[in-house]
Write a sequence for this structure.
């Protein structure tokens, strides 16, 4: 299935946001292999798994594993593409979750 990614910047991170039917998720924009643009990637069935496929070299990353975002590379299982959950708010705003945020953001003079 062809899904169109949208490149966005959130809190200084370059991300690619995807919608597959009702499901939303984000990926790090730069592929962990050789920094291909993941927002231009396809969602494809790879060996029975729904995967995000990098357009640069065709590396594929499993989107979900047992209902949880995965990012495991099917070409090299020791590599993982960072994926983030996305939720759509009642007003249409997309809320993107990150694994962790550094408390140093509070030290920023603009905060």
């Amino acid at each position: 299935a062809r899904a169109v990614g949208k490149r966005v910047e959130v809190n200084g991170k370059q991300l690619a946001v995807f919608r597959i039917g009702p499901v939303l998720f984000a990926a790090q924009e730069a592929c962990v292999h050789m920094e291909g643009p993941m927002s231009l990637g396809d969602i494809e069935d790879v060996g029975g798994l729904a995967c995000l496929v990098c357009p640069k070299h065709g590396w594929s990353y499993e989107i979900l594993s047992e209902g949880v975002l995965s990012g495991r590379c099917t070409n090299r299982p020791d590599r993982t593409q960072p994926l983030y959950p996305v939720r759509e708010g009642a007003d249409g705003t997309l809320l993107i979750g990150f694994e962790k945020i550094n408390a140093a953001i509070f030290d920023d003079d603009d905060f």
Notes: The chain is about 0% helix and 40% strand. The first strand starts at residue 6 and ends at 10. Strands lie at 6-10, 13-20, 23-28, 42-46, 49-53, 60-62, 64-65, 68-69, 83-88, 94-96. The mean pLDDT is 88.
